[in-house]
Write a structure and sequence with these properties.
alpha+beta, single chain, 2 domains, 7 helices
Length: 282
């Protein structure tokens, strides 16, 4: 069908674009499956429609705190990773030992990027139960209609946000999608069991959950070019072999044409579908 809604529909669509069933596409099903997986991975990692921004909420446990606070926590050996390295210095063998805390949260494999975390621990200036300035303003002023102007309220809120920004430092994080770990370089002594971390992240779209991914215009042309290149790669070894009737296979030409198409598609990805890198100002 012209609008693929499944994995097999997309494969059939690409084969028709290459000439099937009029022509025999000399690519094995296993090869096509690998190419589909490669195309989906590239689409998820580079295309702005391949991911969606979402917020993951994680509740802190005592085990997380023990691992984060080691070696000063309840269990001095909890979460400690020791790495050793050897070197020869001045003719003598020397061993170096490094220790690293396991101060990380396990992240689902579908998350490919994390922007920041929001730590709702109730310690900031703006919101802190009934004794916060915000609560007292609503209690004493806002509900008396006309006693507080909106401009005054907005200016006070802005001032409180400035104080909170100066006194509450941003949580330092480290993340690599190949590790599936979010390292939190924070003061774990200020974290309590039951607190929540809200993670601002980007999740790769799973085409099995969102079938419209299979009909993406870029994915269709990209996978078609990948299959065409594989087709040419398979036929290169038959270069110069003539079939009955004098027909000669030209796998090299098919391969070169597909590679040129892929080069154009990659350039189109960078200029059209990929989010540009953010410039650093300062």
């Amino acid at each position: 069908m012209a609008q693929p809604s499944s994995r097999q529909d997309l494969i059939d669509y690409c084969k028709r674009k290459l000439g099937a069933p009029v022509l025999e596409i000399n690519v094995a099903d296993e090869q096509i499956d690998d190419l589909v997986d490669d195309a989906i991975q590239f689409f998820q990692e580079r295309h702005f429609d391949g991911v969606s921004q979402m917020y993951l909420k994680y509740q802190v446990t005592q085990e997380d705190i023990d691992r984060g606070r080691a070696p000063n926590g309840a269990n001095p050996t909890a979460g400690i990773v020791t790495t050793t390295a050897s070197a020869t210095i001045a003719g003598a063998a020397t061993t170096f030992s490094y220790k690293e805390n396991s101060n990380y949260l396990q992240i689902p494999p579908s998350v490919i990027g994390i922007t920041k975390i929001f730590h709702f621990d109730g310690t900031n200036t703006v919101t802190n139960n009934m004794f916060s300035v915000k609560y007292q303003m609503f209690l004493n002023d806002i509900y008396y209609w006309g006693s507080t102007e909106l401009l005054t309220y907005a200016m006070v809120k802005t001032y409180l946000e400035d104080i909170d920004f100066l006194l509450t430092t941003q949580k330092q994080i480290r993340f690599n999608q190949r590790m599936d770990r979010l390292y939190l370089d924070i003061d774990w002594g200020s974290v309590s069991v039951g607190d929540y971390f809200v993670i601002d992240c980007f999740r790769a779209l799973d085409p099995n959950d969102f079938s419209r991914v299979w009909n993406d215009s870029f994915l269709k042309i990209y996978l078609t070019a990948l299959i065409k290149r594989q087709w040419g790669q398979n036929l290169i070894k038959f270069q110069g072999v003539k079939l009955p009737g004098g027909v000669e296979l030209n796998g090299r030409q098919i391969y070169d044409d597909a590679q040129k198409e892929l080069d154009t598609i990659m350039e189109r990805m960078s200029n059209t579908y990929e989010l540009p890198p953010l410039d650093m100002i300062g």
